[in-house]
């Protein structure tokens, strides 16, 4: 029983190492675009258009 548990844990550790090697390549290729920032107040503007946070409404 102890031998089976040990082999399972070793297998999971090897699988995790291969997952870490492949993951950065996938995220670089399919990365998300950078979020839009307001030029005046430097806050995030997720919807686009005029900035809802600025008093002048410039985006």
How many angstroms separate the termini? 64 Å
Please, what is the average pLDDT?
Answer: 79
Radius of gyration: 23 Å
Strand content: under 5%
Which overall shape is indicated by the principal axes computed on the Cα atoms?
rod-shaped
Protein described:
The protein is built from one helix and no strands. The chain has one helix spanning 2-29. The model has no long low-confidence stretch (mean pLDDT 79).
Structure, briefly:
This protein is mainly alpha-helical. The chain has one helix spanning 2-29.
Topology:
Layout: H1 2-29
Tag the structure with descriptive keywords:
47% helix, single chain
């Amino acid at each position: 029983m102890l031998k089976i548990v040990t082999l399972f844990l070793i297998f999971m550790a090897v699988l995790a190492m291969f997952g870490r090697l492949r993951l950065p390549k996938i995220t670089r290729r399919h990365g998300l675009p950078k979020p839009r920032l307001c030029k005046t107040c430097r806050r995030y503007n997720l919807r686009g258009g005029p900035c809802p946070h600025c008093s002048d409404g410039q985006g």
